[in-house]
Amino acid sequence: MGNALAMRLVTWNINSLRLRLPHLETLASTLRPDVICLQETKVPDPLFPAEALRALGYEHLHYKGMKSYNGVAILSRYPLTPLDRLPDWHGKEDCRHVGALVHTPGAPVELHDFYVPAGGDEPDVTINPKFAHKLAFVEEVTAWFKNRTRERTILVGDFNIAPLEHDVWSHKQLLKIVSHTPPEIERLTAWQNVGFVDAMRHFVPAHEKLYTWWSYRNRDWKTSNRGRRLDHVWVTPDLVPSLSTMTVLRDARDWTSPSDHVPVAVDFTL
DNA sequence: ATGGTTGCCGTGCAA
């Protein structure tokens, strides 16, 4: 970005960092983000392609990954101070959260990158432990943020919950589908109400459809357009005046061998 | 109501 006191932030569930490294290069050269938060990197730390990312201009890297599943990463042109001592959510070492102070040309901002559990297919905690895990994860994260100072903080990631009626293609048909059920939405809303503002909906009114994910299982994602907004950018209220633009990079869903999620970019004047 | 596809790997599992 031209403005020295600005930051372009992208969040993207890349669904395998190593497979889609060429797409990340495209993203880096076209949007030129200052900071990129990735989810589902699916790469153990010793195999993380750090050199390739540094070559793209992301000198500062903070990541936590494992074999085959999950994995999150922050790539930054600005120096990072990783937040160590983040909780081990739900007693699992499953690489769903990293955080760092980002030393922008303005004052530092605290950035959290989350990959919330998808929760399986059955929205019933008594028969589906993955759904129970998802609800418990959000509850634990909510309780943790209640005890922190909540200023100059940004939360992004694949939250795997589409909370608003127009965050899904059919509110009525998805009410019993994991990602849009009332217990998930209640918990996500409680988390947000700890002290965050939905930055995407700051730009796009609640009555307009807004999606970031289209299933692989639709032959023609664009025609059927059965999308959901699973990816989010939240900011503390003090950062709302610094929100400048927001872009959902819908075109990325048509890239060769795409992720099922598309990148979301937000520009700040910090 | 069901099945649809993808990535990880080398089989089913998770999404």
Automatic annotation (TrEMBL):
Alphabetized InterPro entries for the sequence: AP_endonuc_1, AP_endonuclease_F1_BS, Endo/exonu/phosph_ase_sf, Endo/exonuclease/phosphatase, ExoIII-like
Annotated positions for site Transition state stabilizer: N160
Family: Belongs to the DNA repair enzymes AP/ExoA family.
Pfam families: Exo_endo_phos
GO annotation, biological process: DNA repair
Source organism of this protein record: Acetobacter cibinongensis
Coiled-coil portions: none
Residues the record marks as site: Interaction with DNA substrate: H261
Keywords from the named record: Hydrolase, Magnesium, Manganese, Metal-binding
Cofactor(s) this protein requires: Mg(2+); Mn(2+)
Source taxon at top rank: Bacteria
Protein name in UniProt: Exodeoxyribonuclease III
Cofactor-binding details, from the entry: Probably binds two magnesium or manganese ions per subunit.
Binding residues annotated for Mg(2+), in chain numbering: N13, E40, D158, N160, D260, H261
Domain Endonuclease/exonuclease/phosphatase: 10-261
Molecular function per GO: DNA binding; double-stranded DNA 3'-5' DNA exonuclease activity; endonuclease activity; metal ion binding
Positions bearing the site annotation: Important for catalytic activity: D231
Catalytic residue list: Y115, D158, H261
